[in-house]
Amino acid sequence: MRKVFVLFAAAAALTTAACNTVAGAGRDTQAVGSAVTEAANDAAD
What we know:
Mean pLDDT: 83
Largest sheet: none
GO biological process, one term: response to toxic substance
Pfam families: Entericidin
Organism: Brevundimonas subvibrioides
Number of strands: 0
Signal peptide: 1-18
Low-confidence stretches: none
Order of helices and strands: H
Keywords: Cell membrane, Lipoprotein, Membrane, Palmitate, Signal
Distance between the termini: 67 Å
Shape: rod-shaped
Radius of gyration: 20 Å
Strand content: under 5%
């Protein structure tokens, strides 16, 4: 039973870490998109 609990806790920790990584990648992608949009608007002016 203890082995199952340890495996479950490890899986939960990895899942949480993966969610944080995906959220961070999403923020980075959004920042790049904003920078490209701003550069395009500056070039159009």
